[in-house]
Amino acid sequence: MDKKKLFIVTGELSGDKHASLVVKNLRETNPDIEIEAIGGENLKKLGVKLFVDHSKAHMSAMGLTPKILFDHITLGKRVVDYLKNEYKPDLVLLIDYGGFNLNISKFLKKAGIKVFYYIPPQIWASRKWRIKTVKQNISKVMTIFPFEKEMYEKEGIDAQFVGHPLITQMPPAANRDEVFEKYGLDKNKKLISIFPGSRTFELHYLMKTFLKAAELIHQKREDVQFVIAQADSLKDDVFNKFLGKTDIKVVKNDNYALLSVSDALMLASGTVALEAALYTTPMIISYKGPWFAYFVYRLVRCIDRVCLPNIIMDKDIVPELLQPDSNPKVIAQNLLKIIEDENYRNEMVEDLSKVKEILSKHEAAKEVAQILAKELEQQ
Q1: Which of 104, 261, 323, 370 has its CA 20 to 30 A from that of 249?
Q2: Are residues 234 and 326 in the same domain?
């Protein structure tokens, strides 16, 4: 009996990590499945043969320059030709990386190759028209949020909620006393941690606003202290340029510890809000950028909320302070309410606990592996 063949397509480090966890689970029950991929170091360490190492192919490069666009088109053609004429997989698994993956799904469908998608494009956030491409070319979608499943099923797409991969990847909450001692923090004061974003343009628009908000809070409450988290993706000289002169401690490479031990969080909108929710830490999220970009976003977005805990619960749990509301005074007021209003704080913690409960019922990589194994066995 011929071995079943699986081909996985990822486009960046996070996708490579998700893929490696799926492969580990799949091999525990189906060690004979042959697997090749477009991936990176995590898959390579598992002995998966890489058609392309995406880190060397610059697939995760930011922006859409003519060269990047040309490279993506060329790579897409190469991989489809290889799968159609040489490797001939029984199944292709696309992971995240919507632009590239949705495009090649069209050609894989024409070639008669079955395609599943894990972590599909966030059509619920914007550009909902992409769901047509999914419906036409993808046989099964494995979603990481429960509301995504409902959205895809309404369009007649076979979808299954498998849970969020963060659940098994995040470490347990840190010990508060140890973290405070490590960074020289006062155990008798409350801690607000500031996460101003992981991209340069986010620092440009948010850093001064967040620092001024911290200053306003400190003027009213001397029993509150702050730290600011520096993202791994930002070099010291870039970060310090936006940081300017401040007495606030900068912490590197310890995001999860800060998220889990803080009394409140000042966050740039993004995945970090979901990470904070899984530690049930009260927060505000804030975001702003060029007004034109904000106007375009308002036109193409499909939902009213932007913060993942709010979207998951379909409820305004966490204050979303966007564009005009992303100002020091409003941010300070909302954080002070978390610090000072015990009932408000407890209600937020309770709602965040429900978010964690919903997502914790599933183990994403394991469920994806089970779905793939079942499909390959039936072929």
Answers
A1: 323
A2: yes
- Tell me: do 97 and 25 sit in the same domain: yes
Of 67, 354, 338, 70, nearest to 213 by C-alpha is 338
State the Cα–Cα distance between residues 259 and 272, nearest whole angstrom: 9
Query: Do residues 331 and 185 share a domain?
Result: yes
Pair 344, 314 in one domain: yes
The order of strands in the sheet holding 249-252 is 249-252, 224-230, 190-195, 264-268, 283-287, 320-322
Q: Is residue 325 part of a domain?
A: yes
Q: How far apart are CA 365 and CA 163, in angstroms?
A: 9
Q: CATH number, domain at 193?
A: 3.40.50.2000
For residue 190 the two structure tokens come to 């409350």
Quote the number of domains for the chain. 2
Instruction: Give the other-Cβ count within 10 Å of 163's Cβ.
Output: 23
Q: Note whether 307 and 285 are within 8 A (CB).
A: yes
Tens digits of pLDDT across the chain (379 residues): 578 999 999 988 889 999 999 999 999 999 999 999 999 999 999 999 999 887 776 555 444 456 666 676 788 888 989 999 999 999 999 999 888 899 999 999 999 999 999 999 887 666 677 889 999 999 999 999 999 999 899 999 999 999 999 998 899 999 999 999 999 999 999 999 999 988 888 888 899 999 999 999 999 999 999 999 998 878 888 888 889 888 899 999 999 999 999 999 999 988 899 999 999 999 999 988 665 555 555 555 656 788 999 999 999 999 999 888 899 999 999 999 999 999 999 999 999 999 999 998 899 999 999 999 999 998 7
Instruction: Give the residue among 273, 213, 223 at the shortest CA–CA distance from 246.
Output: 213
Which residues constitute the domain of residue 140?
Answer: 5-163+362-378
The verdict on 78 and 222 lying in the same domain is no
